[in-house]
Amino acid sequence: MADCNKINKELRNSNVKNKGGLVMSNTTQALSRIEAILDDSSFVEIGAGVTARSTDFNIQEKKAPSDGVITGYGVINGNLVYVYSQDATVLNGSIGEMHAKKISALYDYAMKMGAPVIGLIDCAGLRLQEATDALEGFGTIYKKMSIASGVIPQITAVYGNCGGGLAILSSLSDFTFMEDSKAKLFVNSPNALDGNNESKLDSASAKFQAEAGVVDFTGDEETIANGVRQLVSMLPANNEEDAAVSATTDDLNRACPDMAAEIADPALALSDIADDNVFVEVKASYAKEMVTGFIQVDGITIGAVANRTALYDEEGEVAEKFEPVLTVKGAYKAENFVNFCNAFEIPVLTLTNVKGFEATVAAEKGIAIASAKLTYAFANADVPKVNVITGEAYGSAYVSMNSKSLGADLVYAWPTASIGMMDSQLAAKIMYADEIAAASDVAATVSEKAAEYAKLQSSVESAAARGYVDAVIDPENTRQYVAAAFEMLFSKREVRPDKKHGTV
């Protein structure tokens, strides 16, 4: 491979000496951020000689090398990617006409080649001196990103300011990383919100945005660079490429003896299932009762969705507890993730433990729509889908969680799982209300009727007899069953009705 650092250096020297006065970007923090993400010596800059062409407000008197954004391409673990990095030392990294055109041109390259785009944000916003030209350029970037959505992966990393319309740009991408000490992400700055100021509540902070579900990952610059590299390595380059495959020496038949104990926190269980115990959790700080992220099994990337009832801290103690219910935020989180996986042909695994819907006045305002979107996402997804029922699976909430009726290709259940309309105790009280009321020993009667109902309607054996469960498996054998299922489903194809898109 060519020494691209040497090429870039020669280009800089050539452009600086050029009679036309071209000035290439200096070796700045913007460039070092690119180099931290890409393989060594792989970055090649494109459009180095571009600079602002506006003369309004005497802006031409200010140096604008590369118009404040470095654009180019390189590789991550040998995989082609396109990257742009805003340079806050040039007009505060503000977006002007030519700045926007460079990013738009990068998207044209990426779409032609079918490769991901990584945007590194550190920007004061739109360049006021260029007004409508800058605004037009901004809209063009929005359009390019919208067209690229579902075709190539788009990743944004926020290192500095990402305000106003830039916040929309970051949310148009598939995944957003945010530096956790200096970066600011906002549509309206904290001090512009009625009754608020930054010292009271910093709504532009990484912590706030991560807990709001806007940001997927947070950390320092080194953590971000490593995270972007890991994520790109797990994702396909585009929507037509086969699943991302990595070499692994992990035993497919490896037992997971701690699986049953870990299932309350599926992040632990999924790590146990995964090759080399690597689980990349997405939106970990948002809707913690729903876990989403990526694992690899036999080297194949799989998207995972799971219900959580406990969150453990680093000492292994329970830090937070959750009811096994479907929440508004949890449903939206899972729906968005499943849609991404389906767009890029990434198989989906679910670990299901849900007994109903969140029952609060606030939840009632949105749970129907949120659950409908989750239901549609699973039903609409035509990628390989496997469901493992690990605990309770009751009512419509269970149906929405990748059930057989929604199109799950294979459904497994642990022996301790319970599948049915509702909890057997509650069902018994409803079905045998008169008999229970007349009983001399109410508790004994309820227990007897509940046990009868559970055996006939809520046991895994009952569900298996009806074909709703394909096999009852021991928890410690979950990895090998999951691996075998996705291996069998690798070449899955489905024919769906021809339509432009759904409306849910």
TrEMBL record:
Species classification: Bacteria, Bacillati, Bacillota, Clostridia, Lachnospirales
Gene Ontology molecular functions: propionyl-CoA carboxylase activity
Sequence ranges assigned to domain CoA carboxyltransferase N-terminal in this UniProt record: 1-250
Pfam families: Carboxyl_trans (PF01039)
InterPro entries named in the record: AccD/PCCB, AcCoA_carboxyl_beta, ClpP/crotonase-like_dom_sf, COA_CT_C, COA_CT_N
Transmembrane region(s): none
Annotated protein name in UniProt: Propionyl-CoA carboxylase
Organism: Lachnospira eligens (strain ATCC 27750 / DSM 3376 / VPI C15-48 / C15-B4) (Eubacterium eligens)
PROSITE patterns documented for this protein: COA_CT_CTER (PS50989), COA_CT_NTER (PS50980)
Residue ranges occupied by any CoA carboxyltransferase C-terminal domain in the UniProt entry: 236-488
GO cellular component, one term: acetyl-CoA carboxylase complex
Top-rank taxon, per record: Bacteria
